[in-house]
Amino acid sequence: MAEHFVTLHCEPCASCRREAWQLVVDGRLRWEESEDCPAAQVLACDGDWGPPPPWIRERIVAREGTERLAVGGPDGIPLKAVREVYGLTLPELRHARAYGIEATPVEARFLRTRAAPPV
Fold first, then answer.
1. Residues in CB range of 78: below 8 A, 6 or more apart
2. 73 in Cβ contact with 96 (< 8 Å)
3. What is the pTM of this model?
4. What is the Cα–Cα distance from 12 to 43, expressed in whole angstroms?
């Protein structure tokens, strides 16, 4: 039996609510989003572990801004932590080492926590 998927779209109206956010759950970075339009009777939720996809991250950055973090060196976020969180290639990691990275506030707190020496 074949499955069929239908995506319903509504025109944005005063009733529409779209939210996206990040959080840390059990020591792991997570993102969530929800869309709700009571007028069109549409409700959708999504989420996953790690950094959000670009279109979700754009909404988070528009609302919360970013923080520039130094990468590597004595005062920067360890290269290993940055590579694990963002899945950077070696050339991307070299660029981050040279110029830093733009992290959302939640990503910045998460990376700083991972970089902190154990107490």
1. 72, 114, 115
2. no
3. 0.78
4. 13
